[in-house]
Amino acid sequence: MTAPRDKFGRPVVVVTGMGIMTSLGAGKADNWAKLVAGESGIRTITRFPVEGLKTTMAGTVDFVSVDPFSSTALSERMAELVTQEALEQAGIGAKADFPGPLFLAVAPVEVEWPQRRELGRAVGTQDFNYDDLLRISGGGKYSAYHHRFMFGSVAAHLAETFGTKGSPISLSTACASGATSIQLGVEAIRRGETDAALCVATDGTVNPEALVRFSLLSALSTQNDPPQAASRPFSKNRDGFVMAEGAGALVLESYEAATARGAKILGVIAGCGELTDSFHRTRSSPDGKPIIGCMNKTLADAGMTPDQIDHINAHGTATPENDKMEFNTTSAVFGDLAQKIPVTSNKSMVGHTISAAGAVEAIFSLLTLEHQRIPPTINYETPDPTILFDVVGNKARDARVTAVMSNSFGFGGQNASLILTREPA
Amino acid sequence: MTDTASKPGQTEVWITGIGLATSLGEGLDANWAALQEKRINVDEKGFAPYVVHPLMPVTFDSQIPKKGDQRQMEAWQRIGTYAAGLALDSAGIKGNKDILSKIDMVVAAGGGERDLNVDTGVLTAEAKGANAPGFLNERLMSDLRPTLFLAQLSNLLAGNIAIVHGLGGTSRTFMGEEVAGADAARIALARIASGESDIALVGGSHNGERKDLLVLYEFGDFNLRDKFAPVWARKDHAGFALGSAGAFLVLESKAHAEARGAKPYAKLSSVVADLARRKQPGDMAATLEKLWAKLPKREGKGAIITGATGAEPATSEERGFLKGHADFPVRSTGTMFGHTMETQFPLGIALAALSISRGALFPPNDSTGTEIEMQGAPTQIVVVGAGHWRGEGMALVEAVS
């Protein structure tokens, strides 16, 4: 019998439902099979013309259709599908009656080019200015676009569909958003505000402007051919991340509530930590202190020491700076263990799902714990000699895994880490 | 279930810092003076036919000393970073590395500030026949400023605050229009009350002088047109006038504040929020009533500060709710400051704390009788925030006993 509270006297928070979607496919079974087989979901973009772009590939989710198309609509639909999967597995609450709050990681919402172009065409003249656009925006013809492009629209849709309680929170901590959504759920349960929380993260923003924005910041890989080989975490010839779409949903519950209703426990969120880097908008502090602090806070939150972590699911974006920084900071925290603990980056196969990545990778970490098998980091042909991680290169590895650290670092100095375990400590 | 209120055994949470940069001015004295004089700064011409409340110009250098930092931000981020600095000053922790290295930040933000020239350039070229498949890509690649993205990202308000003021604790950004401001305060309060956090910077900022935002709200016919009127006098001329403002609060556990000798403006006793379905008339008012009932008992001299927008049907629904609590004098921040979206709720808390600390509610500014005079010092102020489209929040700000 495991104690329902952790060593700090807080309710133990467990996962009882998971749903996932990436460029590899829909659902846990499909994703896991392809992930351990080392398949890539990265392909040449067909959703829109790629002429004039430096990067022409991405991990798009093309098998989900929404009409009319917008990145926000795709994000919403993916979030809905992964939530359905998670709720079916958890078997919690009643239909459209989830007994807890929603924490949603979602990309910032804005009017997109198809809608802007529609407006431009509606002006009906060849020369016009922004005031002309403004003049024709009202009158109810475009009221659906107001509703669609509210920041809170995706969360409100999920809250109404699944009957979550209270005010749903839409959050962004850039590439750490998915981890933050889980952290908010963990905290709400630990505070005793709720027995259950629905944590969802979604990102469907592979569109021309988003791609251009990252491109202008030199963040993206330009190794377009073949697209499957573009994302090369920890490799010497890595040259940036690959944008990708995806979503993940986790049902969190207190251990006590989960066991009381006889739910199957899929894993434990043993620790969460976050620490802000105030050095630069897009770069980490050269001394790595904020990331080191983030990892240490997470270990402390879990009441664990570095030697208890036997796998790291890295942020591993494949940008030249991130991967090096991640090794250096991990070494500072884990010492020699940093070269012995198996490390992998799911982004080598699914790309960087940005706002969803923290949740997507937490789910992959939990599946790693379940299957006792670590998915590979593909495209690991030319290891970076300065990154001395034990990278699980190219082929999945069977391993005894009891505790995984999953890292997420984002623009704006956002750092968040999670520790996931199979059983309550 | 997801409400936060100081429970027995939980720590009291004080408001020890307030930073305001609004259409009425910067700092507490300037805003207070304008409120006393019922002075409203409204522009009916610059964005005609739409009415906006423009930011009273500030010297950004005083809170954002590096020009390089200012250039990396668009207006909404500069306003917020400025107001955040004022809040840290007000709490007496500006430059205090020990505290700033652990302060927790919860920011309510929109984002997406556009380069209008780039947008209209693309659209007019297309109207003139540019239709090559890669036309949009090429124009965006050549015309977008590389750093504009960072000025558009919602979480980069928090990022800029961290960089400019040296904050090194945690940082979370909530989005979702008006109620994001209530949720930011709700989560920060819950974390401090439960001991997860000692001190937090909470708030938001908004640039209302944006045609791209006017387009978004014009889609729903939400913009106030032609002529300004107080929020309660817009029934036949509904809409909100976007406002520019930054409002930040320093929230702190009583013990943490006392240990460093900080004085409170007021205490934040409770923040609650919900999502009414708003399918039928009365749904929103029922949710407001439910939230009202969840707040701790009000036995003192009470008042209400609301962020009612002027948009319909939300404002009429809220007026119905307020009529049921007519013993509470009401003040509308929308009349005085315009509608500052994510910032309206933190602004309401700031004005509640300011009113309590100055021993008077600011005077009414309304021709319809919804706002009445208040005699004496308020000890309990309920902050109400009902979104123009969705989301309802409420907070109780009280005098420290």
Automatic annotation (TrEMBL), chain A:
Residues 1-422 form the Ketosynthase family 3 (KS3) domain. CDD domains: KAS_I_II. InterPro entries: Beta-ketoacyl_synthase, Ketoacyl_synth_AS, Ketoacyl_synth_C, Ketoacyl_synth_N, PKS_Beta-ketoAc_synthase_dom, Thiolase-like. Pathway: Lipid metabolism; fatty acid biosynthesis. Keywords: Transferase. The keyword Cell division does not apply. Pfam families: ketoacyl-synt, Ketoacyl-synt_C. One of its GO terms (molecular function) is 3-oxoacyl-[acyl-carrier-protein] synthase activity. GO terms for cellular component: cytosol. GO terms for biological process: fatty acid biosynthetic process. Belongs to the thiolase-like superfamily. Beta-ketoacyl-ACP synthases family. This is 3-oxoacyl-[acyl-carrier-protein] synthase II. It comes from Bradyrhizobium huanghuaihaiense.
UniProtKB/TrEMBL annotation, chain B:
The keyword Transferase applies. The keyword Ubl conjugation does not apply. One of its GO terms (molecular function) is 3-oxoacyl-[acyl-carrier-protein] synthase activity. Keywords: Transferase. InterPro entries: Beta-ketoacyl_synthase, Ketoacyl_synth_N, Thiolase-like. Residues 12-256 form the Beta-ketoacyl synthase-like N-terminal domain. This is 3-oxoacyl-[acyl-carrier-protein] synthase II. The lineage of its organism: Bacteria, Pseudomonadati, Pseudomonadota, Alphaproteobacteria, Hyphomicrobiales.
